[in-house]
C-alpha cells in the first residue's frame, strides 16, 4: 500500500495534504511518511521473527535523527560508514552494541571512537586496515570484533556507480584472497574474528545475485571452520531495490520473498553441515527501508518554452537531490494538484548554474508557475547527499504521522551556511 495518494485531487502523505505542508513549511521540503517507514522495517523484522538475526539499517541512505530514533525503537541496529554516523546513532538513542562499521577508509580516530563505544563489529576491507585496527585496539587494551568484507565477484547488474561486488570495485577483500586474509586476522592478538560480510550493490531488483553471493560466503565459512576459524555471523549486506515508477521497469523482489529464500538456504546448509546449529544473520538494508517513504516537494518558479525543449524550472535542484545528476536516475514527478489541462513535455530543472542540474527529463505535465510538484520515492540518498552548492540551504524535512506533521529538520538559512567561515585577520 502506498502512503502517498490523491485525496480530492490533492496528493497526500498519509492524511496530510502536501499543499498544506508547502504553505506551512515552504519548499523545497522532504516529506516522509512514518507509517511507510515502519511498514518497510517490519517487512524485514517480521521475516526475521524468532531467528537470531539483526537488521542494521544502512543509515547513509537517510540519517535524520527522527528516522534513526523511530527505527531504533523497533529494535534496529545500524550500519555506519563514518564516526559522524556513529555520533548520530548515539544522539538518536540507538544502541552502539548493534552498530556495524563499514567502509574502506576508516581512520585511527574513527576506530578509537567506535572501540570506545563497544560497537558490534568492524567490517574490515583490507589487510592494512586489519593491522591498523589491531594496533589501535591494542593501545586501548581492547579486542576489536571483526568481520571481513569479502568481494564475491558476482554481477549485481545495476548501475556501475552502485555495483560494488565486482573484482574491479574498490570494495572488500577479493574472494580468492579471503582465506589468507582471515588467517592473518586470526593471528592478530587484538582482533576477534567474528563474522563475514559482503555488499554487492544497490537497487538490485532480483535476489539471484544475492543468493549467489550467499553461496560463496557459505563455502568460505565452511573452509574457515575446517581450519578452526569459527564465524558467528553472516552479513549479506543491503541492496534490495525499490520501484521508482518508470514505465517498463522490472518489479523489485519483495523483501519477505527474498528473506524466505535466503533463510531456506541457510537452514538447509546448517542442517547438512552444522547439525542444525544456527548462525546469526545480519542485513544492511538502506534504500528498501527509506526509499519509498518520502517525496521532495518543490514549487514551479517558471515555465520556460525552448526551441527544442520546454523547461519547467523548479525551486529544488541537484544540490537538494543528486540522484538524477549523479546516476542519471529516473525519478517520478507528480503534480500535487491533479489538473485536467493538456500536458506538455518538459525537462524539470533546478536553478543551479550547471547543465547537469536536472531532476527529470521529457515528462508530460500540466503545470503552471506556482504549482507544486512532488519528486516521488526520494527518501533514500536524497537529503543525505544534498549539498550547499550555490550557497543554497538544504531543504527542511518533515515526518507525517496521519494528520500530524513533525518538522524534524528546519530549513538551512544562508547565515547557517557561512557561520563556520571567517575573513583573514
Ligand atoms: C550503502 C550500503 C548499504 C545499503 O545499500 P542499499 O542499496 O541502500 O540497501 C549496505 N551496506 C553497505 C556496506 C553500504 O555501503
Model description:
- The chain is of the alpha/beta class.
- The protein has helices at about 20-25, 35-50, 65-75, 85-90, 110-115, 125-140, 180-185, 210-225, 255-275, 285-290, 325, 415; strands spanning about 5, 10-15, 15, 30-35, 55-60, 75-80, 100, 120-125, 145-150, 175, 190-195, 235, 280-285, 295-305, 310-315, 335, 345-350, 360-365, 370-375, 395-400, 405-410.
- The strands form three sheets. Strands 4, 14, 15, 16, 17, 18, 19, 20 and 21 form a nine-stranded mixed β-sheet that branches. Strands 5-6-7-8-9-11-12-13 form an eight-stranded parallel barrel, surrounded by four helices. Strands 1-2-3 form a three-stranded antiparallel β-sheet.
- The protein is globular.
- Bound molecules: pyridoxal-5'-phosphate (PLP).
- Pyridoxal-5'-phosphate binds near residues 79 and 199.
Question: How are the SSEs ordered, and which strands pair?
Answer:
Blueprint: E1 4-7, E2 10-13, E3 16-17, H1 18-25, E4 29-33, H2 34-48, E5 53-58, H3 65-73, E6 77-80, H4 83-91, E7 99-101, H5 108-116, E8 121-124, H6 127-139, E9 144-151, E10 173-174, H7 178-187, E11 191-197, H8 208-226, E12 233-235, H9 255-273, E13 280-283, H10 287-290, E14 294-305, E15 310-314, H11 323-327, E16 333-335, E17 344-349, E18 358-365, E19 372-375, E20 396-401, E21 404-409, H12 414-417
Parallel strand pairs: 4-20, 5-6, 5-13, 6-7, 7-8, 8-9, 9-10, 9-11, 11-12, 12-13, 15-17
Antiparallel strand pairs: 1-2, 2-3, 4-14, 14-15, 14-19, 16-19, 17-18, 20-21
This protein binds pyridoxal-5'-phosphate.
Pyridoxal-5'-phosphate (PLP) binds at residues 58, 60-61, 79, 102, 199, 202, 237-239, 284-288, 380.
Amino acid at each position: 500500500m502506498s502512503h502517498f495518494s490523491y485525496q480530492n485531487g490533492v496528493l497526500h502523505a498519509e492524511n496530510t495534504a502536501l499543499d498544506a505542508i508547502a504553505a506551512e513549511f515552504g519548499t523545497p521540503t522532504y516529506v516522509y511518511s512514518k507509517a511507510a517507514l515502519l511498514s518497510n522495517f517490519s517487512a524485514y523484522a517480521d521475516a526475521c521473527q524468532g531467528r537470531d538475526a539483526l537488521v542494521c539499517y544502512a543509515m547513509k541512505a537517510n540519517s535524520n535523527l527522527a528516522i534513526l530514533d523511530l527505527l531504533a525503537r523497533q529494535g534496529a541496529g545500524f550500519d555506519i560508514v563514518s564516526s559522524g554516523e556513529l555520533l548520530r546513532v548515539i544522539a538518536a538513542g540507538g544502541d552502539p552494541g548493534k552498530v556495524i562499521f563499514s567502509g574502506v577508509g576508516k581512520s585511527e580516530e574513527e576506530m578509537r571512537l567506535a572501540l570506545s563505544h563497544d560497537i558490534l563489529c568492524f567490517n574490515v576491507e583490507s589487510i592494512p586496515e586489519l593491522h591498523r585496527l589491531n594496533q589501535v585496539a591494542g593501545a586501548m587494551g581492547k579486542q576489536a570484533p571483526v568481520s571481513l568484507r569479502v568481494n564475491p565477484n558476482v554481477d549485481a547488474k545495476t548501475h556501475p556507480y552502485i555495483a560494488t561486488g565486482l573484482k574491479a570495485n574498490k570494495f572488500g577483500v577479493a574472494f580468492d584472497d579471503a582465506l589468507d586474509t582471515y588467517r592473518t586476522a586470526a593471528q592478530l592478538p587484538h582482533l576477534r574474528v567474528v563474522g563475514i560480510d559482503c555488499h554487492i550493490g544497490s537497487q538490485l531488483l532480483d535476489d539471484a545475485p544475492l543468493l549467489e553471493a550467499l553461496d560463496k560466503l557459505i563455502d568460505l565459512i565452511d573452509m574457515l571452520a575446517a581450519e578452526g576459524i569459527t564465524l558467528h555471523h553472516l552479513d549479506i549486506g543491503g541492496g534490495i531495490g525499490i520501484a521508482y515508477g518508470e514505465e517498463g521497469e522490472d518489479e523489485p523482489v519483495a523483501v519477505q520473498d527474498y528473506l524466505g529464500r535466503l533463510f531456506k538456504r541457510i537452514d538447509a546448509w546448517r542442517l547438512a553441515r552444522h547439525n542444525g546449529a544456527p548462525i546469526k544473520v545480519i542485513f544492511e538494508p538502506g534504500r528498501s527501508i527509506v526509499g519509498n517513504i518520502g517525496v521532495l516537494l518543490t514549487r514551479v518558479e517558471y515555465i520556460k518554452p525552448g526551441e527544442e525543449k520546454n523547461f519547467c524550472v523548479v525551486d529544488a535542484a541537484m544540490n537538494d537531490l543528486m540522484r538524477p545528476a549523479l546516476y542519471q536516475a529516473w525519478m517520478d514527478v507528480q503534480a500535487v494538484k491533479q489538473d485536467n489541462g493538456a500536458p506538455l513535455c518538459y525537462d524539470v530543472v533546478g536553478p543551479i548554474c550547471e547543465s547537469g542540474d536536472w531532476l527529470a527529463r521529457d515528462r508530460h505535465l500540466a503545470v503552471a508557475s506556482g504549482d507544486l510538484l512532488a519528486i516521488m520515492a526520494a527518501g533514500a540518498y536524497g537529503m543525505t547527499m544534498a549539498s550547499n552548492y550555490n550557497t543554497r540551504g538544504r531543504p527542511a524535512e518533515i515526518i507525517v504521522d496521519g494528520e500530524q506533521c513533525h518538522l524534524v529538520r528546519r530549513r538551512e538559512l544562508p547565515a547557517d551556511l557561512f557561520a563556520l567561515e571567517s575573513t583573514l585577520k
